[in-house]
Amino acid sequence: MTTTFPSYVISHYKLDFHRKIEQNMEVIAIQKSLLDGMKKELKALLELTENATRKYTPIFKEEKWLDNQEVCLMMNITKRTLQTYKDKGLLPYSKLNRKNYYKLSDVQALLKGKHSYNTNDNGFTDE
Q: Where in this chain does the entry annotate a coiled-coil region (predicted)?
C-alpha cells in the first residue's frame, strides 16, 4: 500500500529540509597541501578495502549463496529443521557477519536426496 501525501505537506517538508541544510552549511578554508594529504589517505583506505575484499569476491561469484530464509523456502522446511541439518552435518554452511549462508549446489544436492534423511512435521528426525 502506497501512502500519498497532499502537495502542501510535501512542499512544507522540502522547504524545511532546505532550511536545515542552509543553516548547517559552513565554509572552511584549509591549505591545499592538507587537502591533498587527505585525498591521498582516502585513496590508500580505498585501496586497502579493495585489497581486503578482492580475495573474497571469487568465492561469491563462483556460486550463488542462500541465507536461512531462502533455504527454508526452497526446501519447504522450518528453521528448526534447517538447524538439525546443520547440526548433523548434512548441509554445510559458512558464516559471514553472524549470518549463515549455504551454497545453492549443497541445497540442491540435499533436495535431490543424496542424503537420506527424514524429519517429522515438528522437525525431529526419524532415523
A: none
Sheet holding 94-96, edge to edge: 65-67, 99-103, 94-96
Dump pLDDT digits (tens) for 67-85: 999 999 999 999 999 999 9
Phi-psi region of 97 (alpha: psi -120 to 50; beta: other; left: phi over 0): left
Could you write out the DSSP letters of every residue in 92-119?
--EEETTEEEEEHHHHHHHHTTSS--EE
- The conformation of residue 107, written as its DSSP 8-state character, comes to H
> Where are the chain's structural domains?
63-116
63-116 maps to CATH 3.40.50.2300: no
Give the integer Cα–Cα distance in Å for 78 and 86.
13
